[in-house]
Amino acid sequence: MTHDEEIDALGLLCPLPVLRARKRLAGMAPGRVLRLLADDPAAAVDVPHFCAGAGHVLERVETVPEGRAYFIRRSPAGAAAGA
Protein backbone atom coordinates (compact mmCIF):
# COMPACT_ATOMS: atom_id res chain seq x y z
CA MET A 1 0.00 0.00 0.00
CA THR A 2 1.27 3.47 -0.81
CA HIS A 3 1.80 6.01 1.92
CA ASP A 4 2.71 9.67 2.26
CA GLU A 5 4.82 9.63 5.41
CA GLU A 6 6.51 7.03 7.59
CA ILE A 7 7.55 6.64 11.21
CA ASP A 8 10.09 4.02 12.27
CA ALA A 9 9.10 3.12 15.82
CA LEU A 10 11.01 -0.17 15.86
CA GLY A 11 12.46 -0.88 19.28
CA LEU A 12 10.09 1.52 21.05
CA LEU A 13 7.63 0.29 23.64
CA CYS A 14 4.02 1.44 23.76
CA PRO A 15 2.75 4.06 24.14
CA LEU A 16 5.67 5.68 22.26
CA PRO A 17 4.72 4.41 18.75
CA VAL A 18 1.16 5.71 19.21
CA LEU A 19 2.34 9.03 20.63
CA ARG A 20 4.67 9.56 17.65
CA ALA A 21 1.90 8.62 15.23
CA ARG A 22 -0.49 11.03 16.93
CA LYS A 23 1.99 13.90 16.65
CA ARG A 24 2.78 13.20 13.00
CA LEU A 25 -0.87 12.76 12.01
CA ALA A 26 -1.72 16.11 13.60
CA GLY A 27 0.54 17.79 11.05
CA MET A 28 -0.71 15.84 8.05
CA ALA A 29 -3.49 16.84 5.67
CA PRO A 30 -6.78 14.93 5.94
CA GLY A 31 -6.83 11.80 3.81
CA ARG A 32 -3.04 11.34 3.78
CA VAL A 33 -1.61 7.98 4.85
CA LEU A 34 1.00 7.36 7.53
CA ARG A 35 2.98 4.11 7.61
CA LEU A 36 3.96 3.26 11.19
CA LEU A 37 6.55 0.54 11.70
CA ALA A 38 6.45 -1.05 15.15
CA ASP A 39 7.66 -4.27 16.72
CA ASP A 40 6.14 -3.96 20.20
CA PRO A 41 3.42 -6.62 20.53
CA ALA A 42 1.24 -4.13 22.44
CA ALA A 43 1.01 -1.99 19.29
CA ALA A 44 -1.36 -4.60 17.83
CA VAL A 45 -3.90 -3.47 20.44
CA ASP A 46 -2.87 0.16 20.97
CA VAL A 47 -2.77 1.32 17.33
CA PRO A 48 -6.30 0.17 16.39
CA HIS A 49 -7.63 1.57 19.68
CA PHE A 50 -5.94 4.92 19.02
CA CYS A 51 -7.30 5.08 15.46
CA ALA A 52 -10.86 4.31 16.57
CA GLY A 53 -10.74 6.90 19.33
CA ALA A 54 -9.17 9.64 17.21
CA GLY A 55 -11.32 9.10 14.12
CA HIS A 56 -8.47 7.90 11.89
CA VAL A 57 -8.85 4.86 9.63
CA LEU A 58 -6.54 1.90 10.08
CA GLU A 59 -6.43 0.94 6.40
CA ARG A 60 -4.16 -2.07 6.63
CA VAL A 61 -1.72 -3.96 8.81
CA GLU A 62 1.13 -5.84 7.16
CA THR A 63 3.59 -8.23 8.72
CA VAL A 64 7.10 -7.21 7.72
CA PRO A 65 10.43 -8.83 8.68
CA GLU A 66 11.00 -6.18 11.36
CA GLY A 67 7.53 -6.38 12.94
CA ARG A 68 4.31 -4.82 11.63
CA ALA A 69 3.48 -1.92 9.35
CA TYR A 70 0.30 0.00 10.21
CA PHE A 71 -1.20 2.16 7.46
CA ILE A 72 -3.24 4.95 9.06
CA ARG A 73 -5.34 7.36 7.02
CA ARG A 74 -5.62 10.82 8.60
CA SER A 75 -9.16 11.69 9.67
CA PRO A 76 -11.16 14.38 7.85
CA ALA A 77 -10.59 17.89 9.17
CA GLY A 78 -12.38 18.46 12.43
CA ALA A 79 -13.40 14.83 12.87
CA ALA A 80 -10.89 14.03 15.58
CA ALA A 81 -10.39 16.34 18.51
CA GLY A 82 -6.74 16.32 19.55
CA ALA A 83 -5.70 14.04 16.70
General shape: globular
The proportion of strand residues reads 25-35%
Q: How many distinct beta strands? A: 4
Class from secondary-structure proportions: alpha+beta
Overall description:
This protein is of the alpha+beta class and 83 residues long. The protein has one domain (5-64): Translation Initiation Factor IF3. It contains 2 helices and 4 strands. The protein has helices at residues 16-26, 43-54; strands spanning 5-8, 33-38, 57-64, 67-73. It has a 4-stranded mixed β-sheet, covered by helices on one side. Strand 1, helix 1 (16-26) and strand 2 form a beta-alpha-beta unit. The protein is globular and about 30 Å long. The mean pLDDT is 93.
Condensed summary:
With 83 residues, the chain is α+β, with helices and mostly antiparallel strands. It has helices at 16-26, 43-54, and strands at 5-8, 33-38, 57-64, 67-73.
List the helices and strands and how they pair.
Layout: E1 5-8, H1 16-26, E2 33-38, H2 43-54, E3 57-64, E4 67-73
Parallel strand pairs: 1-2
Antiparallel strand pairs: 2-4, 3-4
Identify the notable features of this structure and list them briefly.
83 residues; 4 strands; Translation Initiation Factor IF3; 28% helix; alpha+beta; 2 helices
